[in-house]
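BUG: 3D viewer hangs when loading the predicted structure for this chain

Environment: internal workstation, default settings.
Expected: structure renders.
Actual: progress bar stalls at 90%.

Input used:
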Amino acid sequence: MKGSEFMPERNASEISKFLKNRIDSFNAAPVSYSCGTVTKVGDGVARVTGLPGRLYGELLEFEGGIYGMALDLEENGVGAVLFDSGDTVCVGDSVRGTGRVAEIPVGKKLLGRVIDPIGRALDNMPLEEDEFLPAERPAPTIIERRAVDTPLETGILAIDSMVPIGRGQRELIIGDRQTGKTSIALDAVFNQKNSGVICVYCAIGQKASNISYIIESLKKNEAMPYTVVVASTASDSPATQYLAPYCACSVAEGFMNEGRDVLVIYDDLSKHAVAYRAMSLLLHRPPGREAYPGDVFYLHSRLLERSACLKKGGSITALPIIETMGGNISAYIPTNVISITDGQIYLESELFHSGIRPAVNTGLSVSRVGRAAQHKAMQKVSGTLRIELSQYREMAVFTRFGSDVDEATARLLRRGECLTELLKQGKGEPLDVFDETAILLAFNLDAFYDVPKNETRKAAKELVAFLREHNSAVVKSVIKSGDLTDSAKKELEESIKDFKEKYEQHK
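Structure tokens produced before the viewer hung:
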């Protein structure tokens, strides 16, 4: 069969014009690459000679498609850390300088996806890459920033009432192993479902099973559509773990540059510091305190300083996590990160094991932004909570021996006991601003004073349901404005008194 039976005839002039355009657009300029040679390799580190003029943090391509990053720039060679297994890299292999630093895709197409710090998809789906940002970028300047004044609601009563977090703030979550640090971070993510806040969860050196559990929790709570997961497992190379938080921050900056508010969780920076220490020791850098290199402070400061609230719109709120040992918050890495952040949420093992969850020690927890980033409604009902809780815990120690107490002390202990029960909250049970305000307002009115300890939380849930049914206009007003007017407060107080009477009659 002739080709004309299947293809339309083309005019000779059209073909000639097409070929002429292709020839004119052909670039015959030679492309030059600088190449070097591997002289030493081992433990995920390669020494390379013959690569002058390299950039710090530049990507190097080894034979077999293995990539590394130049971190040691010396007169007679380059020290590079490998992102993948270096088993296939041998002495004598050629190395090519790419001329570009480590970068990661950004944009809306990443929402709901799981990627690694190199930008590869981990969820077995193709990844569309339109825009890239380098992993390391300068922090916003002083002039570009504005004050933090908009609350970021976590849905956790103990935090929103006493340790408020604002959009653009850097609030550290610190505590021993298995005290609920990740749970608090995830609850904060779950609570952003209808807030318009984009979330980026960065897992650094975590077990693959833990990361899988986190992803399933995000899916179960319908949080994946507005979340990006950047994951580096414990089996990944130290270089990959080192790069993870910087890449996660770049993903967040991609949304911030569009005017969006972003919440970034670094879980955790303790493992990040350990990965950097491993890299530095393998590169033969001189060790300092606890074998960490001298620039470990700069390691985290240049990361966390990228979190900000911009004048032109958009913000990045950072919740870094630090794991302590034996409650020692004065160790090297914890003190470094505490000095960089705008406050910390301290989780105490003793509280956790006594059944108080979240195990927030309000005495050691602080928010340096404070009430500037708190709803007015919450300000009006939470003013004395921290003092009252501190007095209760101090007085409870002295009354353990069974000594007689006066009426005032007995009242203090009863209210403190009641408040402790109200602050308990299960995983994945966030509260909105009205629920939190209503519970604390009822506490201030002693609505739960005569309720048995084991029934306090149940009574609080019933109270909230009662108020939502009988005071719907106030509910909408508080949620929309974040404020509690005098008239709304008076209406709620009357409803709380009615609920208390009906509850006592029912009992």
